[in-house]
Design brief:
By secondary structure, the protein is α/β, with parallel strands linked by helices. The chain has eleven helices and 15 strands. Strands 1, 2, 3, 4, 5 and 11 form a six-stranded mixed β-sheet that branches. A five-stranded mixed β-sheet has the order 8-7-9-6-10. Strands 13-14-12-15 form a four-stranded antiparallel β-sheet, with helices on both faces. It is elongated, with a radius of gyration of 22 Å.
């Protein structure tokens, strides 16, 4: 779409209408989940949820520097591409230190025959991004992923003339902005997204909390995954008998062999009200200790699934 100058623009249309126009130009997720890649590509194909320039894109390249990144519309498409063999791996956010866990990804990890092979931490810095030449006083609408909007509440509250709108992806909001040439709108996204689409950063680092980090997993099909010999962390999913004391007993077993529990998360079991799958991350000192942890859990659990062993980048 050719960008119009401010003087030639017609009266602004609603944000909802702009989003409808933009979505009408998008291909269905099934068409975009695994685009063809040139035979000369050296890196593995890594699926992400989101557009080029997203935080997931940055994380994928941090995990594998020469990767070919394959954007997908939704997380289910990411795992479908991985499970089908259309890509070699997936880079998924699993936890943000402010917003918490990405619960859907725990469910998808459990449902798929995949293994976590690496993790990385990405420093999340949000920016107000506009079409080049846009002035801040002209911005009436701000688009971004709901989590990004929530992490920039202070900035948005200080600019009462701006109304925020949830979008499916941070980088996608920049892509929409530039394709529509909307000079009354802005996006909240990464510096990389601004560069990717030729946009301009109007205000940098507008997040409420500068200590904002997201953990990302690199996930591969279980049959093709190799365990890092220097792994010092293990992720496990398990289910317990629905009776008093089972969770305490299971966690006590982990403590008794010297593992350091760094995270615990619960997810409901579909079709079984008030029953849960528990997910734990534990620091380990050896592969033998990891095996002992799995064995210890199996004494108390109706199901145990190891999700992966990898190096903890933070410690």
């Amino acid at each position: 779409m050719t960008e119009t100058s401010p003087s030639s623009q017609k009266a602004p249309v609603s944000a909802e209408t702009l989003m409808e126009r933009w979505y009408a130009t998008r291909k269905p997720a099934s068409e975009s989940a695994a685009p063809p890649v040139a035979a000369s590509s050296k890196g593995m194909r890594i699926a992400i949820q989101g557009e080029p320039g997203s935080f997931s894109h940055e994380a994928a390249l941090k995990l594998v520097a020469d990767a070919t990144v394959v954007p997908c519309a939704v997380s289910a498409d990411v795992f479908a591409a991985l499970n089908s063999g259309a890509v070699d791996a997936a880079a998924i956010p699993i936890e943000n230190c402010i917003a918490g866990s990405v619960l859907e990804h725990f469910d998808l990890l459990l449902a798929s025959d995949v293994t976590v092979v690496r993790e990385t931490q990405l420093h999340i810095r949000h920016n107000l991004i506009v079409a080049p030449g846009t002035k801040i006083e002209a911005v009436e609408r701000v688009f971004s992923h709901p989590v990004a909007l929530a992490q920039c509440k202070r900035f948005l509250a200080e600019h009462t003339g701006m109304r925020s709108y949830a979008f499916y992806d941070t980088a996608g909001s920049v892509k929409q902005l530039m394709e529509l040439g909307d000079r009354n709108a802005a996006a909240i996204a990464s510096e990389a997204a601004a560069h990717c689409y030729g946009a301009e950063i109007l205000r940098a680092h507008i997040e409420d909390n500068p200590e904002n980090y997201t953990r990302f997993f690199l996930v591969r099909r279980a049959a093709e995954a190799t365990t890092d010999p220097n792994a010092n962390k293990i992720s496990v999913a398990f289910a317990l008998e629905h009776r008093p004391g089972t969770l305490v007993s299971a966690l006590s077993e982990l403590a008794s062999i010297g593992t350091n529990l760094t995270k615990i998360e619960s997810r409901p079991v579909m079709g079984k009200p008030w029953e849960y799958i528990f997910y734990v991350d534990c620091l380990i000192t050896s592969m033998e200790q990891a095996e002992r942890a799995i064995e210890a859990l199996s004494h108390h659990c109706t199901m145990v699934k190891e999700l992966g062993r990898y190096r903890d980048e933070w410690r």
